[in-house]
Amino acid sequence: MADEDYSVVLAPLEDLFGGGSRTKHVILKRRSASLAQSAFSCPVFEKIAPNRDYSYEGLFALVGTDYWKFLDMIALGVRSGDKEIKLRPAEVIATPWSCEYRYDAGGRTVRAQYYLYRTSYGAAGHLDVRIEGSENRPSTIVFEPFFDIRFMYGPSEPGNLDATVSEDVLYVTAGGPAICLSSAGARLEKKGRQVSWKYKLGSGYRCRKGDRLQFKPERRTVSSLYEIEVDGAAARLCFSCGPDRDTARKLHGIPASATGSGEPAWVADVAEADQLRRAIFPDYAASKRDILYRVLGMARFGTMVDSVVFHEAGDFWFRSVWFRDEFEGLIHNYQTLRKISGTDGMKQVLRKAFELQDEHGRIPNRLVPGTGGKADYNSADATLLGFILAGMVVRDTNDGDFAQDAAAAFKKYLQGVRCAGLEANGPPRVRPNGLLSVPSWHSWTDGKRNVDGQALPIRVSEAWERELLSMGAVADLDLQMFFLPEINAQWMRSLEAGWLFSKYVRNFSMADTCKMLYNRALEAYKKVFLNPETGFINNLATTDDFALGPRADPMPGSPGVVAASMLGLDVFTIRELDAIARYAKDRLLRTKWGLPFGIVVKESGTGTYVGDEEYHEEVVWPRDTPYLIRLLQITGDQSTVEGLLEANLKHQMEEGFVFYNHELFSCDHDLLPVKNPVQWWSQWVDPYLDRV
Question: Which domains, and CATH codes, for the chain?
Answer without folding.
Answer: 3-270 (2.70.98), 281-689 (1.50.10.10)
